[in-house]
């Protein structure tokens, strides 16, 4: 009894066609094979073969940086290092990358406690041991948790306010020393072609941190409690709203605050930006640049300079952690010529190594030297316990206060709730 | 006037043309049309203008209607810019567009045919299971889809860009409905000659449905070329960016060259405008037949 | 095998003729049909399982766990993520943003695309030209349109088109995308979507208009109906019902999933952030909170389904494509 007989119409030709179709589908799959152009970071373990490492950078604005990064990577003898240069929202891309199985072995970023809790980074105490003293205490602290160092500072980026000396002189204004001075200076410098100051297309969120510190507050206190909740902080944030409401800030520029185009093109008289932009500004404006720190709230307080920058980490998910650590040590601790090149030849950054910073001739004159001095006097660094979620809540508060004119105390209370929830999640 | 319009033979809603304003109404309507045309073509004018200008032309304090010297050099500037992976992104978009469209149509048409024409006990249940996925808005599953795809190791790869998008419940639904209405006589004739399901599908049904396929192909290709959220999520590495992701990324980059970016925009819409020019008829047919775009 | 059993054989079919044939084919066909069914439908179903059902289920599971920076569930928290999301003022405000957006876009799209359809349908010359012009923007992506809007039309500085026009009228520059009061950012956000999709819905309406039989109108005039608004309201609009329903439902579902233009035009700001942008920022941004993100995504999915069903019930589902 013939059991199942294939449909009478199934001839050999049809069978070929059917398998042909499946083969085509298989070819489709194969053709789209992984072709990221990066060497796979798996394998290459022991056995003498050179390890393959992938190193992620964000997209630096200065020309020549990508080539330099690739140059350093190529010069490394003990592994094949592939550089991924990431434009756009680097934080988001990095976060997704660390989540997937195709993330970096070595990457730059900003340290926070979530990276340790989620096991994303490895401690680097062993390679840092000999050179710890050559780093600024603030940079060490900002990358340390529970006594272990997790990252190596690559560059220091102070953020200050640069202004056009000629425009201030013409209007007869002295460089502002308090926040109120800043607000009135911006108002006076605003004409119908030029705005007083550019602080970002979002109205000034980037100045929220400096404003907080200039009122004497801080993100988190030494015992990890919210440090932004008192009345003076509320006052400082209110001043930011005042600045926004005075209509003397530039909004809707094609690029954001980190790009000096606005001040270079004469759209504004002052701009909040980092020292990285100084060479570009000098090219466009020559000597017509002066610098002030974010001004103090009042006589009781101090001005504030956010001393940011970028830090190098080794991914805990990397299959080649030892090789990665060796590379990081080679580039960011041993090769001082590369470090100097990176810090000074593409935009200005303060070299994190004290020894390098001391002999950096480019930073010893002009507005760059002024900026360095301001950083030494008034600089503050990030608190590692400040997580991205807290930062988002803080940012929301700033947006509501600055743009919507909401009551600072009420908004601070909202942010405080989120921050406290995060703190109890992290510290119990 | 309205009478003469009707006697041209084409069925037209009388609507406004019988407006009590008569002649003036006609003039007003033409003015409205003219304004609408200007507004709709304005962005294309901007693309052309900016793509062929220098940065100074664009940012000048007074509006330059059109650059005095057409900067065709912007094209080579764009493709030589090492920060913008233009050629690679175009290639990725082309691969995603062609392979993705072909794959989607293949899978959906076969599924639709199977559901419409092959008797199977559980066919209805399978059909409802497919339709059920339409109820979950596609964009809401991008988070877990990313998780699944990344655990397959397909992040930053063309595989990851194409394969998850090949299974369009909507296309399968459309094909099923379409095949249900396909003239059975043609299929029966082939079966009498001994053709099986495969033969009937490939030798009879598909060749006689080419306009429908063309319409869906055009719509699907445009959708794939223009899609943004999924390529954004999957494209970690810049070598796996599609053209949409590349353009979007350069807006948030450290510096913007507006003329370069608009040249990129101009280049990116060329294939679609071409499809438009040649396949507009099918596109419109497809839209009216399906009532939905992607 | 020529014994007269229930299973007809080849011999039977020849001798007993036509009536036997269908049954034979069906019986033998059943086993063959199952195989063929799965040949045709199988790959598709497999893909759907892996790339639609699996993610949904995984997301559902993950939504009951605490998941930061990880996609593997480890710490069970029950419904806490859902509660958190429903109490999250950012999430709620994103739903509000979407609602305002829908209130703008759905009626405007409906009215304007219908108006365009009526206009285009009534011209005698160059109708194809007009139709093409209005339909052409669908060839552009949201990314492309957002870039044009953001950098060249509605940027806040003096060389944007909108501000240039304002300058001719003697008005100051407006920072379109950054100004919260008055909320000017709605203008670019709504117009970009209108530009992109009016042509598409216009085509739908034109098809619907052309299906209306002219005898209806003639009968109406014979009955003394006044031309213009009356005819439109009592003849044209009701005849367009099926198309109108399709347009409204499609429009609303698309508006719920607005992401591309918000992401590219205005970014992640807390005052104009639709649900998808918010969910993207908390799951795949720097916060990497996949537990809450998954919960939020499922809440959103449920809301969309409910609204679609409600809308269908209220308006009555037209046949797809009418």
Strand share of the residues of chain C?
under 5%
Largest interface between protein chains, with number of residues from each side: B-C, 109 and 113 residues
What percent of residues of chain A are in strands? 5-15%
CATH superfamily of the largest domain in chain A: Periplasmic binding protein-like II
Mean pLDDT of chain C: 81
How many strands, which pairing sense, and closed or not: the largest β-sheet of chain C?
Answer: 2 strands, antiparallel
What is the overall pLDDT average of chain A?
A: 85
Which helices and strands, and how do they pair?
The complex is a heterotrimer of chains A (428), B (294) and C (322).
Chain A: H1 12-31, E1 51-58, H2 65-75, E2 79-86, H3 90-99, E3 106-109, H4 113-117, H5 125-128, H6 137-142, E4 144-145, E5 148-149, E6 152-164, H7 165-171, H8 179-189, E7 195-198, H9 208-214, H10 231-245, H11 261-264, E8 268-274, H12 278-285, E9 289-292, E10 305-314, H13 321-334, H14 336-344, H15 354-358, H16 366-378, E11 379-380, H17 388-404, H18 408-427
Parallel strand pairs in A: 1-2, 1-3, 7-8, 10-11
Antiparallel strand pairs in A: 3-10, 4-5, 6-8, 6-9, 6-10
Helix pairs in contact in A: 8-10, 9-10, 10-17, 17-18
Chain B: H1 2-6, H2 22-51, H3 55-59, H4 73-80, H5 86-117, H6 123-135, H7 142-151, H8 158-162, H9 169-180, H10 184-192, H11 197-205, H12 210-226, H13 229-234, H14 243-251, H15 258-290
Helix pairs in contact in B: 2-15, 4-15, 5-9, 5-12, 5-14, 6-9, 10-11, 12-15, 14-15
Chain C: H1 10-16, H2 20-62, E1 65-66, E2 75-76, H3 80-87, H4 89-122, H5 127-135, H6 142-153, H7 161-168, H8 186-210, H9 214-222, H10 229-239, H11 241-256, H12 260-265, H13 275-283, H14 290-315
């Amino acid at each position: 009894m013939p059991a199942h007989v294939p449909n009478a119409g199934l001839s050999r030709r049809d069978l070929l066609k059917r398998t042909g179709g499946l083969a085509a589908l298989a070819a489709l799959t194969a053709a789209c094979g992984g072709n990221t152009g990066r060497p796979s970071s798996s394998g290459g373990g022991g056995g003498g073969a050179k390890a393959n490492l992938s190193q992620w950078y964000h997209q630096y604005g200065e020309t020549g940086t990508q080539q330099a990064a690739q140059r350093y990577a190529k010069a490394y003898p003990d592994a094949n290092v592939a550089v991924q240069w990431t434009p756009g929202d680097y934080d988001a891309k990095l976060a997704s990358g660390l989540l997937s199985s195709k993330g970096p072995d070595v990457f730059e970023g900003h340290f926070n406690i979530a990276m340790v809790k989620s096991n994303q980074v490895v401690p680097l105490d062993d390679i840092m041991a000999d050179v710890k003293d050559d780093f600024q205490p603030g940079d060490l602290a900002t990358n340390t948790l529970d006594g272990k160092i997790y990252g190596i500072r690559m560059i220091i980026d102070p953020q200050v306010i640069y202004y056009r000396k000629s425009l201030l002189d013409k209007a007869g204004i002295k460089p502002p020393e308090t926040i109120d001075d800043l607000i009135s200076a911006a108002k006076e410098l605003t004409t119908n072609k030029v705005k007083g100051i550019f602080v970002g297309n979002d109205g000034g969120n980037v100045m929220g941190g400096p404003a907080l510190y200039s009122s004497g507050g801080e993100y988190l206190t030494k015992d990890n409690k919210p440090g932004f909740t008192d009345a003076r902080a509320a006052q400082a944030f209110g001043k930011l709203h005042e600045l926004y409401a005075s209509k003397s800030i530039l909004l809707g520029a094609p690029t954001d605050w980190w790009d000096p185009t606005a001040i270079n093109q004469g759209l504004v008289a002052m701009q909040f930006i980092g020292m990285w932009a100084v060479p570009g500004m000098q090219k466009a404006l020559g000597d017509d640049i002066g610098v002030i720190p974010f001004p103090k709230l009042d006589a009781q307080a101090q001005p504030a300079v956010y001393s940011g920058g970028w830090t190098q980490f080794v991914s805990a998910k990397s299959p080649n952690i030892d090789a990665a650590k060796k590379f990081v040590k080679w580039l960011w601790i041993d090769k001082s010529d590369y470090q100097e090149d990176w810090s000074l030849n593409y935009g200005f950054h303060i070299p994190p190594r004290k020894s390098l910073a001391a002999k950096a001739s480019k930073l010893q004159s002009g507005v760059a030297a002024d900026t360095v001095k301001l950083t030494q006097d008034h600089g503050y660094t990030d608190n590692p316990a400040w997580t991205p979620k807290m930062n988002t809540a803080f940012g929301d508060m700033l947006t509501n206060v600055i743009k919507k004119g909401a009551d600072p105390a009420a908004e601070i209370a909202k942010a405080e709730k989120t921050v406290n929830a995060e703190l109890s999640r992290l510290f119990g | 006037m309205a009478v003469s319009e009707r006697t041209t033979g084409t069925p037209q809603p009388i609507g406004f043309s019988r407006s009590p304003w008569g002649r003036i109404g006609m003039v007003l309507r033409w003015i409205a049309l003219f304004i609408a045309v200007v507004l709709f073509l304005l962005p294309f004018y901007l693309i052309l203008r900016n793509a062929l200008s220098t940065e100074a032309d664009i940012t000048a304090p007074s509006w330059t209607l059109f650059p005095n010297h057409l900067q065709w050099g912007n094209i080579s500037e764009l493709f030589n810019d090492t920060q913008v992976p233009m050629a690679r992104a175009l290639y990725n978009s082309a691969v995603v567009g062609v392979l993705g469209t072909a794959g989607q149509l293949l899978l959906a048409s076969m599924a639709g045919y199977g559901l419409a024409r092959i008797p199977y006990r559980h066919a209805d249940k399978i059909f409802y299971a497919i339709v059920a996925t339409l109820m979950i808005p596609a964009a809401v599953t991008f988070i877990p889809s990313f998780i699944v795809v990344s655990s397959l190791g397909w992040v930053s790869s063309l595989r990851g860009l194409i394969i998850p998008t090949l299974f369009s419940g909507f296309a399968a639904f459309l094909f099923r409905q379409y095949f249900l209405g396909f003239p059975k006589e043609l299929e029966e004739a082939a079966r009498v000659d001994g053709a099986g399901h495969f033969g009937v599908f490939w030798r009879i049904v598909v060749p006689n449905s080419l306009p429908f396929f063309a319409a869906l192909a055009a719509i699907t290709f445009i959708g794939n070329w223009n899609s943004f959220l999924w390529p954004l999520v999957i494209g970690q590495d810049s070598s796996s960016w599609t053209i949409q992701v590349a353009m979007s990324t350069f807006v948030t980059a450290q510096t913007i060259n507006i003329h370069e970016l608009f040249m990129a925009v101009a280049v990116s819409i060329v294939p679609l405008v071409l499809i438009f020019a040649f396949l507009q008829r099918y596109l419109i047919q497809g839209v009216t037949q399906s009532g939905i775009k992607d | 095998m020529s014994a007269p059993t229930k299973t007809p054989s080849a011999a039977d079919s020849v001798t007993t003729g036509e009536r036997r044939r269908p049954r034979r084919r069906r019986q033998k066909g059943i086993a063959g049909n199952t195989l063929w069914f799965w040949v045709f439908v199988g790959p598709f179903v497999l893909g759907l399982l892996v790339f639609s059902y699996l993610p949904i289920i995984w997301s559902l599971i993950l939504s009951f766990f605490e998941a930061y920076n990880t996609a593997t569930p480890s710490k069970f928290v029950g419904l806490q993520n859902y509660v958190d999301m429903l109490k999250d003022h950012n999430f709620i405000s994103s739903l509000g943003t979407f609602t305002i957006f829908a209130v703008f876009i759905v009626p405007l799209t409906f009215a304007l695309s219908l108006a365009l359809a009526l206009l285009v349908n009534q011209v005698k010359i160059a109708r194809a030209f007009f139709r093409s012009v209005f339909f052409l923007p669908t060839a552009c992506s949201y990314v492309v349109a957002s870039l044009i809007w953001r950098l060249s039309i509605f940027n806040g500085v003096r060389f944007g088109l909108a501000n240039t026009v304002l300058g001719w009228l003697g008005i100051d520059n407006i920072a379109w995308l950054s100004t919260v009061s008055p909320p000017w950012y709605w203008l670019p956000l709504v117009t970009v979507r209108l530009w992109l999709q009016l042509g598409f819905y216009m085509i739908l309406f034109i098809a619907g208009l052309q299906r209306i039989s002219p005898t209806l109108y003639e009968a109406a005039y014979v009955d003394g109906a006044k031309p213009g608004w009356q005819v439109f309201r009592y003849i044209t609009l009701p005849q367009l019902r099926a198309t109108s329903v399709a347009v409204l439902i499609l429009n609303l579902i698309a508006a719920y999933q607005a992401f591309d233009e918000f992401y590219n035009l205005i970014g992640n700001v807390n005052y104009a952030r639709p649900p998808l942008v918010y969910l993207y920022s908390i799951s795949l941004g720097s916060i990497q909170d996949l537990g809450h993100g998954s919960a939020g995504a499922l809440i959103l999915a449920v809301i969309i389904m409910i609204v679609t069903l409600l809308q269908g019930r209220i308006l009555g589902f037209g046949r797809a494509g009418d």
